[in-house]
Amino acid sequence: MATTPVQVKKTPPAPANPPDALRSLRSEIDRLFECFAGGSDMPWVHRMLDVGPAFRHDGILSMPSPAVDVIEDDTAYKVTAELLETSESEIEVMISGDLLTLKGEKHQEKEKNVDLSERSYGSFRRSFYVPEDVDHDKITADFSQDVLTVTMPKTAKAVGQARKVEVKAAT
After folding, report:
1. Which of 6, 73, 75, 78 minimizes the number of CB atoms within 10 Å of its CB?
2. Percent above pLDDT 70 for the chain
3. Which of 32-36, 67-71, 152-156, 167-171 comes out lowest in average pLDDT?
4. Which has the closest alpha carbon to 152: 98, 103, 84?
5. What is the structure's pLDDT at 149?
6. CA distance to 23, 117, 121, per residue, from 112 (Å)
7. Contacts 24+ apart (CB under 8 A), 88-93
C-alpha cells in the first residue's frame, strides 16, 4: 500500500497539550466507577466527563488528542498517531527546536436526521520533545490507512555510539 508524504513544517514552539491530563483523569474516574459498578456501563458518567469536543484551547474547539505510540530502535525514533477519518490535508507536522507537534482538524460530515452522534470533531494538537540525537533535517512524515508515522532518524554519530554492555552477576 502506498503512503502519502506529509510536509514537515518548522514553526515556533507550541504549548503542551492540556487535554492529555484531562483524558488521564477521565480514565481513572471511569476505572473507579467500573470497580464500584461491577463493570457495568454508566453512559451518563461518560457524557458528564467527556472533554472531547467541549474542550477549548486558545479559543479553538478541540477533540481529544490522538492515540500515539513512540518507538525507538537502533537507527530512529518513530511516532505513530491514529488519526481516524482525517485526511492528509487536515494534518500538520511541525518541528521547532526540540519540540515535535502534531496538529490537525477533523471535520463533521453534514448529515440529515442525526439523532445521536458520539464521534469527536474539531482540532487537535499533540507535542513531544525531540531527543538530542535526532537528525532534524531527515525527519519524515507519512500518512497511510488513518495512521500518521513520523520517523526521526538518529544522527550518524549517535548510531555509531551504541554498544552492548555486558551484564555480570553480583558477587
Report:
1. 73
2. 67
3. 32-36
4. 98
5. 96
6. 31, 12, 17
7. 88/4, 88/6, 88/143, 91/6, 91/143, 91/148, 92/9, 93/6, 93/7, 93/8, 93/9, 93/141, 93/148, 93/150
The pLDDT value given to residue 56: 46
- 140 in a structural domain: yes
- Determine the Cα–Cα distance for residues 93 and 124; give it in Å rounded to an integer: 12
Assigned domain for 34 exists? no
Question: Taking all residues of the chain, what is their mean pLDDT, rounded to a whole number?
Answer: 75
Q: At which residue does the C-alpha cell 440529515 appear?
A: 112
Domain CATH number, residue 149: 2.60.40.790
Residue 95 sits in which domain range? Answer: 1-13+66-106+121-159
Task: Give the HSE-up count for residue 134: Cα atoms under 13 Å, Cβ half-sphere.
Answer: 25
The β-bridge partners of 147 are 82, 144
Within-domain flag for 153: yes
In the numeric block, which cell numbers belong to residue 63?
477533540
Whether residue 57 is contained in a domain is answered as no
Domain count for the chain: 1
